[in-house]
Amino acid sequence: MMSDPEPRYRRVMLKLSGEALMGSQSFGIDPKVVQNIAEEIAVVADLGVEVAAVVGGGNIIRGVSAHEQGIDRVTGDYMGMLATVINALALSSALEQLEVPTRVQTAIEMHQVAEPFIRRRAIRHLEKSRVVVFAAGTGNPFFTTDSAAALRANEIQAEVLMKATKVDGVYTADPVTNPAAVLMPRLTYQEVLQRGLRVMDAAAISLCMENEIPIQIFNIHKPGILKRVVLGEEMGSLIGPGEDA
Description:
The protein has a single domain, classed as Acetylglutamate kinase-like (Carbamate kinase), CATH 3.40.1160. The protein has 245 residues and is an alpha/beta fold. The protein starts with 10 loop residues before the first strand and ends in a 5-residue tail after the last strand. The protein is globular.
């Protein structure tokens, strides 16, 4: 029996949107979807890859949406941060049920449910083969969980930021509304910024560009895809510093 090839990456940051946890629901958490994602992570962790994750909160509440409904923007953002903690706990629980050791660290201290974010402790957990789930964004309003993922990826020295989405990658147009949209397998940070592609917010792209952390965009709902990305297969879209990204 042939063994798997060596992973391309040894330490990865996985960014999951809150919407990824909804499945076909219009709100909340679909336990089966969370279980499927946990299984994907477990397979990668079993390869010896150190995995950290950041989860959004859009399946429960978005700060921007709350603001549009009349809630103060800062208050709405904090509400969104708390929503990410709920999602992080759900993902952690699903991983623990698969006997994958995890730690949840939050940017807003809440000792009864999670550890506070401490960079060196997070790295130590990763070195001990624990999956670390970062919650509550950056702990500051006006920053997205994409920015939080880019920030934490830099802080833990991740080799890649993997953004799991509901589409296969970055397209020339919205593939849902434009059947002529074409997948772009390779882009530079500058291309994404200059063309205003809605992949991640500009702050997140800039943070990754500063330390040349590649950003891999892929469809998390394709079975086995996380392992294939970690093993270095050409999947989705890869954003990097240039042709050799």
